[in-house]
Amino acid sequence: MRNDLLEAVESVEASVISNQKIHERYAALSKTFEKLEKDSQHIIEVQKETIAALRALRGRDKQRIAELEGVLDTVHASLVAAPHSTELDGGLDKQNLAAASARIAKLEGVLDVVHASLVAAPHSAELQGGLDPIRKSLATTPLFSPPSNNSHHNPLEENDTPVTA
After folding, report:
1. Dihedral sign from CA coordinates of 83, 87, 88, 89
2. Whole-angstrom distance, CA of residue 61 vs CA of residue 125
3. What is the pLDDT of residues 38-89, one digit of tens each?
4. What are residue 150's phi and psi, to 5 degrees?
5. N or C: which terminus of the chain carries fewer CB neighbours within 10 A?
């Protein structure tokens, strides 16, 4: 009977130790679960902030694109109206041609700025921390090469004879 009693005590002690280990594991898992829950809440908050920031950027992009499209429409209208109406009336004189060429060169500069703005606008600086090499290349590459004495804008040859098509 004494042996039975000793076995029963040892069995109870083993159960107590086993229950303590189970309780310790449960406590550790509970702490881990609480940490994971806090981390997941933080991730959800960051995702919400990111979504809100992207929506705000998209809204600003749409507004900026609308503004730039307005500028492009103005530039296009100016380019269309610049030399053509007087060319149809018998050609441009040198003074009007110089003014039209200067105006076109100025508008090409505006187009370069618009192009750089569209390419660089807020994507890289706000989301990626700077321009990546492709965007940087596009943003710094002008749409038009600089005019060499405006000859590529001049519809008249050097001897002032009209160019025939």
Report:
1. positive
2. 13
3. 988 898 888 888 888 888 877 777 787 778 778 777 777 766 665 555 544 5
4. 60, 20
5. C
Global pTM value: 0.34
pLDDT tens-digit profile of 103-159?
777 777 777 776 666 666 555 444 444 545 555 555 555 555 555 554 444 444 444
DSSP letter for each residue of 13-74: HHHHHHHHHHHHHHHHHHHHHHHHHHHHHHHHHHHHHHHHHHHHHHHHHHHHHHHHHHHHHH
Cβ neighbours of residue 114 under 8 Å, at least 6 residues apart? 68, 71, 72, 75
* Domain chopping of the chain, boundaries: 1-59, 82-165
Residue 12 CB coordination number (10 Å): 10
Cβ-proximal residues to 150 (8 Å cutoff; 6+ apart), any chain: 98, 101, 102, 105
Distance, in Å, from the CA atom of 75 to the CA atom of 143, rounded to the nearest integer, reads: 14
